[in-house]
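Sat 14:20. Reprocessing the chain from the morning session after the first attempt stalled halfway. Input below, unchanged.
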Amino acid sequence: MRIVQLRYRYRVYPDAAQRTALAQAFGCARVVFNDGLRLRQQAREAGEKYISDGDLSKRVITQAKDTEERAWLCEVSAVVLQQALADLNTAYRNYFASVTGKRKGRKVAPPRYRSRKDNRQAIRFTRNSRFKVLDNGRLRLPKIGDVPVRWSRDLPSEATSVTVIKDAADRYFASFVVTTTENETLPPVESEVGIDLGLMHFAVMSDGATVTAPKFLRRAARKLKRLQQDLSRKEKGSNRRRKAVMKVARAHARVADTRRDWQHKLSTAIIRDNQAVYVEDLAVAGLGRTRLAKSVHDAGWASFTTMLQYKAQRYGRTFARVDRYFPSTRMCSDCGRINEKMPLDVRAWHCPCGSHQDRDLNAAINIKAAGQADFNDRRAQVRPGLVPAPRSEAVTHQNAARATRSVAGIAVP
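Finished this time. Tokens:
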């Protein structure tokens, strides 16, 4: 049995009084975070030693509640304030680990101040706050009330924490983190697949199956353009401008929800039908700064490969990334010859060995071969450890996806 940590997100519908209480909690958590960040920055500028986590909590929460300027911190749950400081401490640790080289990947910037104008506001309740899912399906939050929840599925076990999120489209979500030992390993299958991600085709499989690029943002571009034009005509600071901003945010949220829902269905189908999945480690951040940036962001390769990775861990499959400098496109999958670089408009080419290669299919075959070779060389074992809880486990918006039938060669549920 494996210990698995999962995140389940549901839409919640607080009433007017609960929205006010949530706004107050968002504000208090933001103030505590900013106060803690300010104290540490002032200590650094003054040449003083780093303020410990315990001392910081005492100064910005316990002692601050006794002052006239911060007396209103008593009106929200203390756990919300403590978790805000926990986020600050985590941000500092990630920054220090990045600076010292202990943290791999891109460099992490130091913590920044939170703003009430941020598109996303969130607070977190842990078990210490005694939040509870009631028998009538409502979520009881301390000093907030009983909030209605739209349950799209059951929680597999008791939640260890819940995060209440307000997004840019003025929607509220409850994100539960649960820990379970349920064994969800899928029965083994023989097939393995290499995937070449692209723009003309979202994915080309080594077995010849292709997935047409849905281009959700491109399809919604006409509506988004009209909404942006309406927004530009509104006077700054007016109620009409605020309503126009909300319409734009909701349109973008619908695009993101539809893309995420489609990617979940496709990634689940791929993991279910293949014992091992190999993809190329694309430099998405770099491609996002080229003339193809809009198409790259619309494709959502990073989120899709992340879904493949954690679902492979969850269901006992193998997932591996092939080095981004591997010449998967230029290498002939028949003879192994590496040819000259080809422009993007060349979709097929002839190898001197006499074979005719499709650009994307040839790359997918090479990715599969390279992934299998690297996997065998490392003698890796399929023994997934603790599965992380991704930020958005699934889309639960009732109108998330209506027209997503753009898959060719793959049966997606």
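Residues 239-273 form the longest helix (35 residues).
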